């Protein structure tokens, strides 16, 4: 069982299941493989599941909802996201076109940025239907980088309204940057933020602004993309390693290899350290890791539970 940690408006386990991969991120995954991954997550004690309409044009939400159906509702936490509405494009699908945004699915819909009240209400209704749920535990504003004004006013106000009506639990924003997340924490009535890739063993940007603000304001932090697009998912770093969805620079590869060397010197598995590291900060409530198969769930859970001694952490934390 992964430890349960407090979260305003919801309760999340320390290790969360990132469901982008069961939405066919980068390559196709079968329904059976996706279902077995969620089932294995449940057996491993994971009770926090994160998804979004963006992931596979709704496929991730549909698969997750089907896999969780029949389980006691109060025993798990689901987060999804708003800001990208899905508009049907049957002509593109009929023509055999595939999604152009990283997911191996037919282009049945297009994504449209929309942080308006009507857009958010529609998005949540559609997510509830796909997930086969009557409420959502956490809802994040999804990547509002170019939409600060609307997301921080109408977007947050709508989520607060729904939170007050108990349609959703905790509310916040999920992004790949810390500056705007810090603004959400300091200027808006949010409960939780998800930071992707900016608080990892390699990239500790969030220490400069987001994490101090979150502690000060009592806002929970969920850390995602802890492998930095796979760079830290192996104990050996290849020359063609990816960082933040792109070929890693020589400097980044050198830094990752330095961490790997430190890990070997203290008898620690680099991916295990990557999974556990964010939870050492008191503002971080959960780490969300993308998992596609039952085997990936088992390896991730083992990494999460592996023992890392204090002297090893001191060596790793001073090596960045």
From TrEMBL:
One of its GO terms (cellular component) is cytosol. GO terms for molecular function: oxidoreductase activity. InterPro entries: AKR, FDH-like, NAD(P)_OxRdtase_dom_sf, NADP_OxRdtase_dom. Residues 15-318 form the NADP-dependent oxidoreductase domain. This is Aldo/keto reductase. It comes from the Bacteria. PANTHER family: GH17980P-RELATED. It comes from Agromyces atrinae.
